[in-house]
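Example for tutorial group B:
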């Protein structure tokens, strides 16, 4: 056996073993193409022929998100979060220390109702009573391991004056409800009343008086009935492994004292955060005279409150000067009880008004017993009090961006896709190759069904790696091929167990014992590992490649190098727009940059050329010819290739003839008047050419209009917006005819991948034409109303990337799993002829396949779960290879472990693809409702089984899923599921196809775009300005902002931007002179212009497609398009704002729990 590998950059690899030879990584030769990122390659033995992104500025990696800060956090902590997050403003009744209301005035009532997503007439909090507090039952246990909070961290009390006006502005959508974000608690100890997950009753508004110390039995003297619920008390929890501690610390019980219930119905306040964390407001007012203020039992979740509204929105007397974000106590306030705090008994920042029939809030206060005053005005929730995607991204970047992610630990949750981090492969595949929705799988199918968390993996087999990371090693086992399990055919991997002195190995997937081939035998050391463990990539790494033998090839014959065929529409529209001339000019230079490997002087890929309108023109560009020859095929009903020799040629050999052809094509068709085109015969022609050449390849098709000419695959205009929001809307996403499905099937069988560049001026039926691209694993690009000066740069950059990127041809992928789970469903651009093999004529470095798993048996916590992705493909040199990725996951018997190891970005990627496939067979409304219902069930299951009992008015979110509502709302508001009137049917079909192949980083920025304040950029730094949340409220009229979503870049200019900034960026003297037709920013020699252009270039490098630049002036007609991407706001098409959707999700969860 020979192993071609380069020296490893760190443990476990040292110097290569004697006899191992370095294998050069592919690179492009020739001179750099102007304006094209040139690949930066090191030594490598794998198939990386394609486009590589240039080295970005320091601190940035290609295809990644935001720059990271430099603090570290332990990645292997077994401790869990101290306390869950609880989001929402606090409210509480005035206490005896508060000034009395003005004579004759009464406090506003706390009785509020909802509209739209209302909760009905729900009042939170037990009414006041002078009854003494009670101790909880002695049987109530406490969670072990909580340390007392230092006295210095205990928040203080202050007195309340009249309620600030801003607090009264909370939305009536949210009245009676408190939003919280909690981390999943550790498995509850016996006696808490949890029991098996299925036996836990839903959280109710009333709790047993004997079961908890937080509720006092109702008596008639207390006012309203117990349906007015008390908020729950916090649960002390350890931080989750790998998760940033964004929760607040909880003071623990003083030894020897049981917590006493509050007869006033007051729940917990927030507790002081750790140093550096945002500090929420404390409980206003001292304890009532003679009243003991009890601390919360340690079995309750900590609900972290939101900070108060900013001072600019406050009105009325201020309670006191701020102290590090907390209001300190006035001099007259009583000192707090050490270790204890009271909670205000409202929700979302409301101060509890008086109970019915009481003027004052409690006996002893002025106007006690008089009638209540008028209801307060509607209250608006402060958006800063609900989970922020920007904050989560920043926290993860600062906590996990400075340390390498080492893959040697089973079931370890990786950093977010928006965090820049290095990966060290030590036995599990890099998260750049595989990301999972959860890294801790339920042991049983019942538990998985109960949680409703989908178990899925997003796999990107040929992902591009940063220059600092080691590319997969290529292993050659000679004629015998890779070592495999005899039963399940899994490939040798780090999880195989060698036994009997190394003579046999036990499969980690099916437990079958297989003989080790004599040539592969090696002795074991004292730990049971082979002595060559670190010398063999397949034994010590999560990702590697095998050189395939002839047994893995079609017809037991090694493949020929692939071919590229360029097929150019030369109808009237294409010629008139300048597109034909542009393509021909670009191809003259681009053909020098075809993918190649290692030290190859030239690419092995052959090229061919076809032009077409109603008929097809083939070109003989054989090197021996003085001029190219054209052959016309007018019988498009029975397509054939009129020549074999001279159609597919080597670029260098036929360079002169090819250049002559590309000069002549624009001139030959300059005066054409042919407007009709064909499409299916074009694909058939390319397919037949590859069949005749007995090779795989790719068709680059440049097409402009609906194929209405008489030919196979002829289409009609079926665009009908009247079908939107009807049961027939799904037909808009389905192909008109099955002809293209059958054509795509034939293409896959031959390894013929189709990349489609569309330039429509009207309806084109992307849903039908895109089928051949979608099912062959190709890419689709769309340039509506193509204008040379506006779209030239974007098209040429896309074409350059598409031609140069790494592609595997004639690919087949299979995912194997260990006993207990199996792959059941697949999402992506591919074709499947059976239930296990994913077939793709071509698979590039940007494409992903999403795989869903289901249980077929019980799993074991000890052994965990394994998955192995094996991709068989042909490289650009014609070499047949196997790329293997392995991943080990944990298994759990507690739902809390499942919820604390989920990855929301991957979950949203799966849910979006699931929904986008659903629109093919179900009405869009049904798909939307199913999404909302599933997410509500996920959160309701957490609330019921993992969070501690608390008021139904609280929305409690798992720490790992606290962004699920905002991201889900973005999916629901996307153009596919909720189109605005300006969105075309073709656009929806195009977006649906794009998203289905996106990786996790792409869906993250596509659904929640990145918004950067350019005027706050540091011109002396290489870093990006800090991102802000996607809401119009965050925009200032005096600033310039950049928004990017992976497809477009918007530069928004406020009406009050300083004239100097406008001059520096656009080269004009006033706001009115800025042109919104610019496709690039002017090149000006000043620091601000250079900085903004460098930011744009940096973002372009990070994305797989070249983004269109759009200049938007405030109050201009284009601003409506820009606002469509401010996804936290209500959309023009009727999509809910983030705040309203959070209310709606809370309503859905409450209904499920009741």
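The residue assignment follows.
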């Amino acid at each position: 056996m020979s192993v071609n590998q380069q020296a490893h950059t760190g443990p476990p690899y040292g110097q290569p073993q004697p006899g191992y030879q370095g294998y050069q990584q592919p690179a492009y030769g020739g001179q750099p193409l102007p304006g094209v990122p040139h690949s930066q390659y090191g030594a490598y033995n794998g198939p990386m022929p394609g486009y590589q992104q240039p080295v970005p500025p320091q601190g940035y990696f290609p295809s990644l998100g935001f720059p990271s800060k430099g603090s570290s956090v332990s990645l292997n902590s077994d401790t869990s979060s101290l306390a869950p997050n609880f989001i929402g403003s606090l409210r509480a009744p005035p206490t005896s220390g508060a000034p009395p209301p003005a004579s004759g005035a009464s406090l506003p009532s706390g009785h509020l109702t909802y509209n739209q997503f209302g909760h009905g007439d729900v009042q939170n909090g037990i009414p006041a009573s002078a009854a003494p507090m009670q101790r909880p039952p002695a049987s109530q246990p406490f969670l072990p391991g909580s340390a007392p909070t230092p006295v210095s961290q205990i928040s203080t009390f202050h007195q309340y004056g009249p309620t600030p006006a801003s607090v009264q502005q909370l939305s009536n959508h949210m009245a009676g409800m408190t939003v919280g974000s909690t981390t999943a608690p550790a498995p509850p100890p016996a006696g808490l009343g949890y029991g098996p997950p299925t036996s836990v009753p839903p959280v109710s508004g009333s709790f047993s008086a004997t079961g908890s110390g937080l509720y006092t039995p109702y008596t008639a003297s207390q006012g309203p009935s117990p349906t007015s619920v008390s908020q729950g008390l916090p649960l002390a929890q350890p931080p989750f492994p790998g998760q940033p501690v964004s929760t607040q610390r909880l003071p623990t019980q003083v030894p020897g004292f049981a917590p006493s219930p509050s007869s006033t119905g007051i729940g917990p306040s927030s507790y002081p955060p750790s140093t550096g964390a945002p500090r929420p407001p404390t409980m206003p007012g001292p304890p009532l005279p003679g009243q003991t203020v009890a601390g919360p039992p340690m079995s309750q979740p900590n609900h972290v409150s939101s900070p108060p509204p900013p001072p600019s929105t406050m009105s009325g007397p201020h309670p006191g000067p701020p102290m590090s974000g907390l209001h300190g106590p006035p001099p007259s306030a009583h000192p707090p009880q050490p270790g204890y705090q009271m909670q205000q008994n409202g929700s979302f920042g409301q101060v509890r008004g008086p109970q019915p029939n009481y003027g004052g809030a409690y006996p002893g206060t002025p106007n006690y017993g008089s009638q209540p005053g008028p209801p307060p005005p509607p209250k608006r929730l402060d958006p800063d009090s609900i989970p922020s995607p920007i904050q989560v991204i920043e926290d993860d970047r600062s906590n996990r961006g400075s340390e390498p992610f080492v893959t040697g630990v089973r079931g370890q949750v990786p950093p977010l896709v928006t965090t820049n981090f290095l990966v060290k492969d030590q036995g599990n595949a890099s998260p750049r190759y595989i990301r999972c929705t959860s890294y801790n799988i339920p042991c049983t199918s019942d538990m998985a069904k109960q949680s409703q968390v989908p178990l899925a993996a997003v796999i990107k087999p040929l992902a591009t790696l940063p220059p600092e990371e080691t590319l997969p090693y290529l292993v050659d086992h000679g004629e015998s091929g890779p070592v495999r399990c005899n039963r399940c055919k899994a490939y040798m991997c780090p999880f195989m167990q060698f036994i009997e002195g190394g003579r046999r190995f036990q499969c980690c997937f099916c437990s079958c014992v297989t003989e080790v081939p004599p040539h592969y035998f090696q002795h074991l050391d004292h730990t049971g590992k082979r002595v060559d463990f670190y010398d063999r990539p397949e034994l010590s790494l999560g990702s590697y490649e095998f050189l395939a033998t002839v047994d893995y090839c079609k017809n037991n014959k090694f493949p020929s190098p692939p071919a590229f065929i360029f097929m150019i529409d030369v109808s009237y529209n294409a010629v008139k727009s300048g597109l034909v001339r542009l393509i021909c000019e670009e191809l003259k230079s681009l053909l020098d940059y075809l993918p190649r490997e290692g030290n190859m002087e030239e690419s092995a890929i052959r090229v061919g050329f076809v032009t077409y309108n109603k008929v097809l023109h083939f070109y003989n560009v054989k090197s021996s010819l003085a001029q190219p020859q054209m052959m016309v095929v007018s019988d498009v009903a029975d397509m054939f290739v009129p020549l074999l020799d001279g159609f597919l040629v080597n670029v260098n050999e036929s360079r002169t003839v090819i250049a002559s052809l590309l000069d002549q094509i624009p001139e030959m068709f300059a005066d054409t008047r042919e407007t009709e085109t064909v499409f299916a015969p074009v694909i058939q022609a390319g397919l037949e050419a590859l069949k005749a050449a007995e090779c795989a390849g790719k068709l680059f098709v440049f097409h402009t209009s609906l194929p209405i000419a008489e030919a196979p695959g002829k289409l009609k205009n079926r665009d009908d917006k009247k079908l939107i929001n009807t049961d027939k809307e799904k037909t808009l996403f389905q192909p008109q005819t099955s002809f293209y499905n059958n054509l795509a099937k034939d293409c896959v069988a031959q390894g013929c991948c189709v990349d489609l560049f569309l330039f429509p001026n009207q309806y084109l039926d992307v849903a039908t034409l895109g089928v051949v691209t979608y099912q062959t694993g190709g890419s689709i690009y769309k340039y509506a109303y193509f204008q040379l000066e506006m779209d030239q740069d974007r098209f040429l950059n896309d074409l350059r990337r598409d031609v140069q990127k790494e592609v595997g041809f004639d690919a087949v992928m299979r995912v194997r799993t260990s006993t207990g789970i199996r792959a059941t469903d697949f999402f992506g651009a591919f074709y499947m002829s059976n239930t296990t093999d994913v077939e793709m004529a071509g698979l590039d470095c940007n494409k992903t396949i999403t795989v869903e798993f289901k249980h077929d048996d019980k799993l074991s916590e000890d052994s965990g779960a394994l998955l192995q992705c094996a991709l068989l493909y042909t490289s650009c040199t014609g070499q047949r290879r196997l790329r293997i990725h392995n991943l080990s996951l944990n298994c759990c018997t507690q739902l809390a472990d499942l919820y604390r190891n989920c990855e929301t970005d991957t979950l949203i990627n799966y849910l979006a693809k699931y929904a986008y496939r659903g629109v093919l067979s179900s009405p869009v409304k049904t798909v939307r409702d199913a999404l909302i219902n599933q997410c509500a069930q996920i959160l309701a299951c957490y609330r019921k089984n993992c969070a501690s009992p608390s008021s139904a008015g609280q929305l409690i979110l798992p720490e790992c899923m606290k962004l699920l509502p905002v991201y889900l709302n973005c999916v629901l508001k996307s153009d596919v599921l909720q189109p605005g009137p300006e969105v075309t049917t073709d656009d929806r079909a195009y977006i649906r196809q794009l998203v289905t192949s996106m990786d996790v980083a792409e869906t993250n920025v596509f659904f929640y775009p990145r918004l950067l304040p350019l005027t706050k950029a540091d011109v002396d730094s290489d870093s990006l300005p800090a991102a802000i949340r996607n809401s119009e409220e965050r925009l200032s009229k005096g600033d310039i902002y950049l928004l990017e979503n992976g497809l477009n870049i918007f530069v928004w200019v406020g009406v009050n931007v300083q004239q100097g900034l406008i001059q520096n960026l656009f080269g004009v003297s006033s706001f009115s002179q800025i042109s919104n037709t610019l496709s690039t920013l002017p090149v000006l020699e000043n620091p601000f212009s250079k900085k903004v252009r460098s930011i744009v270039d940096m973002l372009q490098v990070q994305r797989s497609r070249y983004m269109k630049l759009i200049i938007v002036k405030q109050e201009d007609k284009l601003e409506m398009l820009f606002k469509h991407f401010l996804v936290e706001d209500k959309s023009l098409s009727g999509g809910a704002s983030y705040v309203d959707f959070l209310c709606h999700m809370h309503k859905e969860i409450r209904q499920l729990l009741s």
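The domain at 1009-1126 is CATH 3.40.20.10 (Severin). Compare this with the pattern of hydrophobic and polar residues in the output above.
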